[in-house]
Design goal:
Four Helix Bundle (Hemerythrin (Met), subunit A), mainly alpha, about 170 residues, single chain, 2 strands, two-stranded antiparallel ribbon
Amino acid sequence: MITPPFVRTMAAYNAEMNERLYAAAGRLSDAERRAPRGAFWDSLHGTLVHILWGDSQWMSRFDNWPRPSTPIKQSDHFIEDFGELRAARDKADADISRWAAKVDEAWLAEDLVWFSGAAQREIRAPKRLLVTHFFNHQTHHRGQAHALLTAAGQETGDTDLFLVVPQMLA
């Protein structure tokens, strides 16, 4: 199962990959970022916004962040301005890294109980599983964003964890 060092590694990977995606997205015009592309959240902008919305939802449970008031079905409109979105993403990544630095075995061993708006019921689940889901959700949607960026002719460099992490540690 996951460990505190895993959480820290994934937080660092998350921040690095977001930096790469946002740099590539920043080379596109606002119209290109917002163009309907048939992705689950329609556009590149919508996908990036949803990732931040999801991170904010989970971190409201893990680290007492303010819970987004935007419902999940409108999560792609959580933040409309790209500059504001990028600044919020940078802050979130720094805050996720700070949270990851304090995660310990005792915290990971606990269950989390919350009311899920998506499931419309109270849920109890192991924090280890939920942290895994948190990072998996990011990776899943970043993969979609990466595909949209690639189709738009933008490069992000390596995305594979085993290639990115050694670069971060060098």
